[in-house]
């Protein structure tokens, strides 16, 4: 088969071709059942087997401890911005670290349900986000029910390369982590985390599935106004089948999990992510033409926003990129420029092709 | 191609083979874009075209008036049970007609958000639901912000063959209709409806997509505790893209809409539904062996629960059915027996095959 274009979309994002090929082959008949996966009752043995396998594979990939529930939900990160405080805040205090658009949105939405306060922010005078605030400076309230952060800001390209150890900072609050855009690209230190959630449409693939991994003791405290379908206790007690789950998205996520296991799991994904990110940032920094504004210590391995010295160059850059099979490189409208999202499904060859095109473009326009 | 098995699942349910074949063919490359639909940014021109076409086709199929929004949401009917009162009740009065499991769940969930009262119920002394209460007897409160009913009860097999005209009953309340399990099998009289919602996993296909059609004047009154991602105003203002929509489910729904248009639209689907239902109910009634307990005037054309005189016959019936390619005929656990869901994607030949098997089974076991 001809090489597929390299798709740098920030999400919904590229899937491994092997996964799509298997899904296409099984579309009308899954394993001789006479049904496609989309046509199966979620209560039937076929789909229950698919969902159990997906959950077990994810638990294995991320070493999710036995005292954490894995929930398959709907609504994405933006819905979780309400669902987390509805379940965890008790209407009391919750602290937020704001490091970009996503954590800002989480902070704003939480104010509807609890006493949400800013523990720290990285906003510069010009509104940009290019650094991470040092945890030693965070204002942690003793009464906070949890502390929320976004461990990889998709739009601003900022990543926590180590999760803070709140206990060493004198806080007993569980850490809530929005890891949507780098889940499965690195291990999660569960000793530091109470809840981690991720919309699947970035580093897993299908939109419409939200994965919530939550410590058992944090479940069962929802506010009375929490919709039953979004009450973690209800969802957990029904094995993520209180309401009909997004069955096909779970199936595709499960195929991605199996693909990840075949590749060597999360450790191998991290090795590749480091390699791809070093190649791309290295090319940007060495160019004297392209630039990335994020402090090196917190540059995202997944989402790389970058800029050129002249606004008029973006249109021809994007046009030439498409002609070379390099897709969806336009930057987010709130920051402009270009952005390459290089998730697990992006092979090293895709980043090499991008760097090669960048060099060529610079030679013509730099 | 060999005849596929006939799949009588109540949901997620069978899809037209043509739709699945097209989805499989386009899985790795949609219309030469170099991307599968699952890999496209929801903000890109390709997916926006898919979503717009799906919305326009649905509007055409159901003759949705211009003053109704069509929203693509997540969470299914069970989430809407909270989302509707969060948006429409204003924390005040709302009336409910309970005719089976689904409307019972809607009534219970709404009590969390408003003064929900029973306008009518069809519950018999033994807990069964086999009739519809006469609208002339409903207790409609003047102050009710809306009246909720489920126009087709999937589990109990009861269908409203005409929506009540609340104005003629002296009520100005908008009617809220959960039409999940018979949407697109008949026209909707929009002059009688304020909001209609449907989980897509029954008579459209993919799970994880909820369709909400709501009159503009009912939007913009959400309670402060309504999550932003489920506030109809926010969803409408963002063209159903406030949070990342379930893109692949929207694409599949769109393929189903185009299939429906090719078949002759909703009028043709209704003609076929009547024909299929008459065939199946006729066979049940004439058998003296199989039985359906629902009053004839409100039997569902979509979901046909039926029973045999001896509990011990169900296991061999289901085993023989599978051997003949007749799948997912087991009744819902709350009512037992058998259930054939004969949605739009079920051809007449499937019902003929079922009736033929029923006759054969009766001859051996009757």
UniProtKB/TrEMBL annotation, chains A, B:
Catalysed transformations (reactions): O-phospho-L-serine + 2-oxoglutarate = 3-phosphooxypyruvate + L-glutamate; 4-(phosphooxy)-L-threonine + 2-oxoglutarate = (R)-3-hydroxy-2-oxo-4-phosphooxybutanoate + L-glutamate
Entry-linked Pfam families: Aminotran_5
E.C. designation(s): 2.6.1.52
GO cellular-component term (any): cytoplasm
Keyword Transferase: yes
Known pathway: Cofactor biosynthesis; pyridoxine 5'-phosphate biosynthesis; pyridoxine 5'-phosphate from D-erythrose 4-phosphate: step 3/5; Amino-acid biosynthesis; L-serine biosynthesis; L-serine from 3-phospho-D-glycerate: step 2/3
UniProt KW Zinc keyword: no
Enzyme class: transferase
Record-listed N6-(pyridoxal phosphate)lysine modification sites: 202
UniProt: L-glutamate binding residues: 43
Residues the entry annotates as binding pyridoxal 5'-phosphate: 102, 154, 178, 201, 243-244
Gene3D superfamilies registered for this protein in UniProt: Aspartate Aminotransferase, domain 1, Type I PLP-dependent aspartate aminotransferase-like (Major domain)
Cofactor: record remark: Binds 1 pyridoxal phosphate per subunit.
Location of the Aminotransferase class V domain: 6-354
Quaternary assembly: Homodimer.
Function: Catalyzes the reversible conversion of 3-phosphohydroxypyruvate to phosphoserine and of 3-hydroxy-2-oxo-4-phosphonooxybutanoate to phosphohydroxythreonine.
Family: Belongs to the class-V pyridoxal-phosphate-dependent aminotransferase family. SerC subfamily.
Name of the protein in its database record: Phosphoserine aminotransferase
UniProt organism field: Azohydromonas caseinilytica
UniProt gene name: serC
